[in-house]
Amino acid sequence: MKLVHPDPELKNQFASDNYAPICPEAMAAMQAVNQGHVNSYGNDPWTSRACNLLREFFETDCQVFFVFNGTAANSLALASLCQSYHSIVCHELAHIETDECGAPEFFSNGTKILLATGNGGKVDPDQVEYLVTRRSDIHYPKPKVLSLTQSTELGTVYTPDELQALRDCAEKHNLRLHMDGARFANALAGRDLHPAELTWKAGIDVLTFGGTKVGMAVGEAVIFFNRELAAEFDYRCKQAGQLASKMRYLSAPWISLLQDGVLVRHARHANAMATRLGDELQALPGVEVVHPVEANAVFVRFPQGVIETLQADGWYFYTFIGSGEARLMCSWNTREEDVSQLISAVRAALPETG
Q: What are the transmembrane regions (predicted)?
């Protein structure tokens, strides 16, 4: 069978960090474990090493599981935090609400999602207070979990103070805290804080830590800082088809990215490219960057006709997130020349003034 290689003239895109290839460190790790016969289902030395490195990374004795993708990570983690008659509070733009085809409700046997608002994709504590206290009768699904996205769907990052306010609200109402960290590495790089400060020290019970978007081929880590909540989570993974038989291919890339600061370095590069892209777009006439660029996403409002011109020119990006603005996402391998190419294309697409 003849392999068809991509068009060498095809430009790098800004639609999603999922478009990017595997980073060299992750690829090397998969190649390194691709020899000999090794115990399956996670009973291998690489999976053990990856779990221990994550414990060192967060500086706590957390319980770690590896699954294939973010939808499974979020859905199974949330199912472990509540019963079917409970509810989960999240931002109205959260991925668990808008992009997971009802998987969180499915895997938790019907747990209802309650939607909060908040500026910049961040949950407003007053909204949590309202949703939790509006009713307390048996006919209302009892709020049990507060789910936060870090970085948010609008590319912003919760500060430790913001997390503390939400933690106080959660503790007041006996809510467990889940963090969707599909782009947690970018949040870390954006705030330049220790991982513990944005997770268990901020009261997070369980984090779904994204590996795919930071350069892995496949794989997310579900990390329980509250180890009691991890009881029988391995059975949930098995039942949901998320227990990898050749687990070493999911776990070994974590080793390569957690050593020598590789993971945060890749995330910091993606953030830097997004910052440059946002600054250069904001300088163009009629172009507005509509949210602070705090991680690796740029949300922009273009003059009429620009989006259509860019798409006709072969540029891919999403426009369905937020209020219809274009979302431009940078990745670990976004180059400065990619940014320059896009800026030139936007400049050429702008309507003439004068």
A: none
- Quickly list H helices, the chain: 24-32, 45-58, 70-81, 95-98, 103-107, 125-133, 160-172, 184-191, 233-239, 248-258, 262-282, 306-312, 336-349
Name the residue with tokens 């294309």.
345
Q: How far apart are CA 110 and CA 57, in angstroms?
A: 34
Q: Give the largest CA-CA distance in the chain.
A: 70
Closest CA to 152 of 199, 193, 120: 120
* Angle, in degrees to the nearest 10, between helices 125-133 and 160-172: 10
Spell out the domains of the chain, with CATH numbers in brackets: 24-260 (3.40.640.10), 262-349 (3.90.1150.10)
pTM: 0.94
243 contacts: CB under 8 Å, gap ≥ 6: 41, 42, 234, 237
Provide the pLDDT for residue 2: 46
Q: What is the pLDDT of residues 11-49, one digit of tens each?
A: 789 999 999 999 999 999 999 999 999 999 999 999 999
Amino acid symbol at 192: D
H/E element, 179: strand 176-181
Residues whose CB is less than 8 angstroms from the CB of residue 267 and which lie 6 or more positions away in sequence, other chains included: 183, 185, 186, 188, 189, 214, 296, 332
State the residue for tokens 């890749």. Answer: 266
Give residue for tokens 């990745």: 331
Q: Answer yes or no: are the C-beta atoms of 294 and 300 closer than 8 Å.
A: no
Confidence (pLDDT) at 191: 84
* b/e sequence 150-189, b meaning 16+ C-beta within 10 Å: bbbbbbbbbbeebbebbbebbeebebbbbbbbbbbbbbbb
pLDDT digits (tens, 9 = 90+) for 202-239: 999 999 999 999 999 999 999 999 999 999 999 999 99
Place of tokens 């350069």: 215
